TrEMBL record:
Belongs to the UPF0382 family. It comes from Halopseudomonas formosensis. The keyword Amino-acid biosynthesis does not apply. The keyword NAD does not apply. It comes from the Bacteria. It is a multi-pass membrane protein. This is DUF423 domain-containing protein. InterPro entries: DUF423. It is found in: Membrane. Keywords: Membrane, Transmembrane, Transmembrane helix. PANTHER family: TRANSMEMBRANE PROTEIN 256 (PTHR43461:SF1). The chain crosses the membrane at residues 42-61, 73-93, 99-120.
Length: 124
């Protein structure tokens, strides 16, 4: 499971940097300032949770049986897909996808709760 989260982090990190550069260079002239800020929020949350996925992957190398770390990583990945993905589709395609963005935010919050509980249970 550690390998999966680390690979997801690599893909997410690459795409987050690419999307951030895309926003800075290609979208700046095409999107209104407010929509550009929405897109950049998606990139920011994606990159922060990419770092979290790296942490989860590394911790799972030490604690491979930790169910809470695995759940935390899954929630971070799902949150990136729902939260950041919905912001990207809103700004690039104009699609509003209902409650998907807040559901992604809830995934992030639950992921951090699971991460915290798992960290509290670490020995040593």
């Amino acid at each position: 499971m550690a390998r999966i989260f680390l690979l997801l982090a690599a893909i997410s990190g690459f795409s987050g940097v690419a999307l951030g550069a895309f926003a800075a260079h290609a979208l700046r002239a095409r999107l209104p300032e407010g929509m550009l800020a929405v897109f950049q929020t998606g990139v920011q949350y994606q990159l922060w949770h990419t770092a979290a996925l790296i942490g989860v992957g590394l911790l799972l190398l030490r604690q491979p049986g930790s169910r809470l770390f695995r759940v935390s990583g899954g929630l971070f990945a799902l949150g990136m897909l729902l939260f950041s993905g919905s912001l990207y589709t809103l700004t690039l395609l104009g699609w509003r996808v209902g409650m998907v963005t807040p559901m992604g935010g809830v995934c992030f919050l639950l992921g951090w709760i699971c991460f915290g509980v798992a960290a509290w249970r670490l020995k040593g």
